[in-house]
Amino acid sequence: MLLHLPNASTYAGDVDNLVLWVTLLTGFWFFAAEGMFFWLMWRFRARPGVRSQYITGKEPDLKRWINWPHTIILVFDIIIIVMAVNVWVKVKQTLPSADDTVRIVSQQWTWTFEHSGNDGILDTADDVWTSDTLHVAAGKTYHFLLESKDVLHSFFVPVFRLKQDAIPGRTITGWFKPTKTGTYDILCAEICGIGHGLMGARIVIETPEQHAAWMQPRSQAALAAAAAAPSSGGTPGASAAITAPGGTTTMAAGTRSLKTRWNYSTN
Predict the structure, then answer these.
(1) How far apart are CA 14 and CA 85, in angstroms?
(2) Alpha-carbon torsion 142, 145, 148, 149, what sign?
(3) CATH at 89
(4) What is the rounded average pLDDT of the residues 244-261?
């Protein structure tokens, strides 16, 4: 945990360690360079009776004070690059097997989430849509399908140390595995218009039992709404609404295209 900041994903510690090592290695050379700079200012300050020294900078006994630190810094740079690549490969280039999948839709200026429902399969009738609140279970590996309906956005979960840009016209796949229960922030980290600063959401990390209890009535409500949809006027792609226990209204769409009409549950 970096500076006692909370983390709640399997790779958050790797990102924290990378930031810590970069800070230590660069910080050491910063203070060493500044210390030498001020010491030289003091050591070779103007003094009565002491003549100035004129050097070319090519003297071997002086060049070593440049060449040796330069070589050591290059070694440290390589160490940082190796560590950064390892973390990048783990977070961005490796896709472990998923226990569940969620769809994340960004638009000015809200987040919409599609949960896979009781069957654990995305894009089926029992899917649960929510606005600005994502529910996940601790200990499960999730794939996310990130989309944007208008401009560039960036899905940022500080407690996961996760940031991924959302690009219009593309579906970007990523992953996370929550490790700690609680309610945490989701932010947009890409300036996306006048409402950018208000584009916040929440991720609720629950125990598997709590998540199942939250999901079951909403998924059943979505199934019932989908079954009722054809009788709601006969319009292709029409939606029906049913209230799940607890007062949550879940919208079930007759066709995939209805997802562009902002049909989702409210929590």
Answers:
(1) 11
(2) negative
(3) 1.10.287.90
(4) 39
